[in-house]
Amino acid sequence: MPKKKSQKNPPSRKVTVGHSKKRSEFFLPLAGIVLMSFVGMGYFYNSSQPEKQAVLAQAVVEETPKPVFRGIGEIPVLTARGVYAFDVDSGVELFSKNAEDPLLPASTTKIATALVAMETYKPGDVLTVSGTNNVFGQKMGLYTGERISAEALIYGTLIHSANDAATALAASYPGGRGEFINAMNQLASDWGLSKTHFTNPVGFDEYLHFSTARDLAMLARLAMEEPKFAQIVGLQSAVVTSFDGRTVHRLTNTNQLLGSVPGVVGIKTGHTITSGESLVTRTDRDGHKVLIALVGSTNRFGETRALIDWIFASYVWEKEEISQK
């Protein structure tokens, strides 16, 4: 039986990306939805004699299918310092290892970076690249002064994990890089990610830049509810250009499980020498969505694959019907 440190469900509130009530044009407008529920069948039988009056009613309540542990197979041996897996729809915890320990999130940070950018910029906004001269690590090849759409930079941030793209998004933010980071922290606070704090938009290892496996899983859950975000992180590759079309940037997704493990639909990788390898992944199989956050591993892809296989072999989703009379 996997270790279950808690049975806390993810926040159930409706997702609003970022820290304000403003909705970006990146996201599809939400249509009004009226949910009508007809619960069972009931009838009232009335008699002229008060003592024979009866009220007969019956309801059948169908709950969201919940995973039930069946204990098939051995739990994978994981080198990751922190791991958290849960069923997205029910919120049931599936696996936990040091899930509340603050760790270095590396480029999984860019989940928050992209969300703040999506709230701030419109798809057609054209930004002038700046602040990228001293950026190291993974890059998409931006040059100072290049004019490129905010949308292209978000693609680069999420697909290619481009440090220069994340930096350019933050540099163009109203109030500058510092205000962008404040917005990232406000986002974390608004979503109840109490053990997450950012000091940069890239994921560089810095003092007071940290998160937990559980917080990253919750962040990913909310982010994946946004259609545009989910679409981007599900792409294996993309090509974007500068505003004038002269500079071409070819992007390759850093998530090697996309296209190789059935059901994997996203979302974000991370790696530094100090932090180790990290991977946040959502897998959809047979109508069930499982999110896994794995932080500080020596083999993020192999361990995530093993955990995915173990979860779907060891749990059965059951819908409980409760009759009320």
The CATH topology, please?
A: Beta-lactamase
N- and C-termini, Cα separation: 36 Å
CATH superfamily: DD-peptidase/beta-lactamase superfamily
Total helix count?
Answer: 7
Could you tell me the mean pLDDT?
Answer: 85
Structural category is alpha+beta
What percent of the residues sit in helical stretches (DSSP H or I)? 10-25%
Q: What would CATH call the architecture?
A: 3-Layer(aba) Sandwich
Radius of gyration (CA) equals 23 Å
What would CATH call the class? Alpha Beta
Give the ordered list of helices and strands.
Answer: EEEEEEHEEHHHHHEEEEEHEE
Largest sheet: 5 strands, antiparallel
In the predicted model, the low-confidence regions spanning at least 5 consecutive residues are 1-25, 27-60
Tell me the overall shape.
globular
The largest beta-sheet arranges its strands as 6-5-13-12-11
Count the E strands.
Answer: 15
Total domains: 1
What is the percentage of strand-forming residues?
Answer: 15-25%
GO molecular function, one term: serine-type D-Ala-D-Ala carboxypeptidase activity
Family: Belongs to the peptidase S11 family.
InterPro entries: Beta-lactam/transpept-like (IPR012338), Peptidase_S11 (IPR018044), Peptidase_S11_N (IPR001967)
Keywords: Cell shape, Cell wall biogenesis/degradation, Hydrolase, Membrane, Peptidoglycan synthesis, Signal, Transmembrane, Transmembrane helix
